[in-house]
Amino acid sequence: MDLSEMVESLVYRKPDSLRDVETHYCPGCTHGLAHRLVAEVIDELGMREKAIGVAPVGCSVFAYNYFNMDFAEAAHGRAPAMATGIKRVNPDNLVFTYQGDGDLASIGAAEILHAAGRGENITVVFINNAIYGMTGGQMAPTTLPGQRTSSTPLGRDVEVHGFPLRMCEVLSQLDGAAYVARRSLHDVANIRKAKKALRQAFEVQLNGLGFAMVELLSNCPTNWGMGATDSLVWIEEHMIPMFPLGDYKVGPGVASVGGRES
User: Fold this and answer.
1) Which of 25, 45, 96, 210 is the most buried (most CB within 10 A)?
2) CATH superfamily of 22-252
């Protein structure tokens, strides 16, 4: 083919809701994927100028460096409380938290439980990589039985440490929760489903239907001690059996606002 006849076509453009900066996340980490999906959904909804994110302590703490929108930093575990205040004062804004499992399911367990119980009209993006990432790879509330961490070098012993917390299953039982879903970021098909769930969760808020949370099963190659590809396989083979994917709560009126996929 004559090179002069070749025509370039745009196949992908970074969302306006993401800044054009380099990432600090470890190679192979799926935080970047989660950021992109959230940004794409906010762009598609035309809400970038009215979006306000809240990121607490953990690997999520630098999210405001990557999202091109208003952001606030909360104390460890307190993102739902801060988001509650922001949303009540600014009801027309799109308010969301971006939290890890050590933050949401441990020190912030009471915060998320009561935010969902009150039916706060906020959206929660919950990154579950089954470990404390930023602070050194310690056992988290979502660490799997037998999984080795820096604080459980012989593996999590359920007789000593208890069982993992399944937050979707817990929060879906609360009357104030309108939409609760779990998706995964380990392959293309599931990434697409994750985006649809995130759009559903944001639309739930825009329609004033109440609390919405999407849990995203993610990896942590560095603290898991494995390569990026192997870590994605580990999600499929080990995390999904412990944390099954699906919609755990679809409240009245939610199915009609679009974006849902089982």
Assistant:
1) 96
2) Thiamin diphosphate (ThDP)-binding fold, Pyr/PP domains (3.40.50.970)
